[in-house]
Specification:
Length: 330
């Protein structure tokens, strides 16, 4: 079946993305094909498009991890999903094998999630990447508890906001980091108890003041680079620092003295630790669906674009102006 699909034939900026008419084969064994209603955009897709991701694209390349829509057809040996179901997609596959940018998307049945019916297509497309990423680190690994102080760089990103919501849900305290005070009020309204503008304030001094000298037990960082040393200096003894991204293009030196003196854990983390394990994914799904159903977890949509403006949507994603999730509708 032919459909409009976003593909690219070389790495580069947003302008390499093309909308092409492509034959989308019927789903094979263990696969589901959905009629896409909305897409969520994320930094991993930008890195994949530009050639800086954990895997290199194979051309012509598709891309996209996050979508919501209606099941259009089901392959052999698929249980629990039927034609007509409203579903969303959890990132649990290689973008060289599957991609959801387009009118039709074929994905592994294991990636299909049943979101609460109260969610719009845009909210459903926005949910899984951000909440699974934050859940895996904060809940599954760090076992976040009431009273914990959690330091969240890139606070205005969808994952940063998701981390703040999960932190609040368990009674811990989210401290957002952002470069300037421009987004401070909006972030406070979205649930951050404190916001530190790192270009305008002393990160370490502010965090120690906010934590009454104890430091943060958990740091959830997608950036890396030289700021890692300040994050470690702002941490409590026996704390855990999650490095779940590498947005900084600068080297990331290990702050050895703080790591040694405080007995810190510096932990590399990707959400595929959760989505690639059926038992862990099931636990995460239960936690997230409960939070979405009660409204304690609520995706924040920054801006929506039609599919025809996919290039402009990627440009906006790279502008860092947004607060929350960028959505593309079909």
């Amino acid at each position: 079946m032919n459909a409009r699909i976003v593909r690219f034939h070389q790495c580069g900026g947003p302008e390499v993305l093309n909308i092409e008419s492509v034959d989308v084969p019927a789903p094979a064994r263990g696969e589901v094909r959905i009629q896409v209603k909305a897409l969520g955009l994320n930094r991993a897709e930008v890195m994949f498009r530009s050639g800086h991701y954990i895997e290199q694209p194979q051309f012509p390349a598709r891309l996209g991890y996050e979508a919501a829509g209606i099941v259009e057809s089901v392959g052999p040996e698929v249980a629990g999903v039927k034609v007509g179901d409203a579903v969303s997609v959890a990132p649990s596959f290689s973008q060289n094998q599957y991609g959801v940018y387009g009118e039709l998307a074929t994905v592994p049945a294991a990636a299909i999630m049943k979101h609460p019916p109260s969610l719009s297509w845009q909210q459903a497309a926005a949910a899984w990447m951000q909440y699974l990423t934050a859940y895996g680190a904060l809940v599954h690994i760090a076992d976040i508890k009431a009273g914990d102080m959690v330091l969240i760089p890139a606070a205005s990103s969808s994952v940063g906001i998701a981390a703040a919501q999960i932190t609040n849900l368990v009674g811990a305290t989210p401290i957002g980091l952002t470069r300037t005070g421009k987004k401070r009020q909006a972030l406070m309204e979205l649930g951050f108890k404190h916001v530190v503008a790192t270009d305008e304030q002393d990160l370490v001094a502010e965090v120690h003041k906010l934590t009454l000298g104890k430091g943060a037990r958990i740091v959830f960082d997608p950036v890396g680079g030289p700021t890692l040393a300040k994050l470690a200096a702002a941490m409590a003894p026996h704390g855990i620092l999650f490095q779940y991204g590498a947005l900084s293009t600068d080297p990331t030196p290990l702050p050895l003295m703080d790591v040694l003196i405080k007995s810190l854990t510096v932990r590399g983390y990707v959400l595929f630790e959760i989505t690639g394990d059926a038992a862990k994914l099931k636990q995460a799904e239960k936690f997230i669906v409960n939070g979405l159903s009660t409204g304690k977890l609520s995706p924040v949509i920054a801006k929506t674009f039609p599919l025809e403006q996919i290039v402009e949507a990627h440009r906006y994603l790279e502008s860092n102006e947004q607060i929350g999730k960028i959505i593309v509708t079909i």
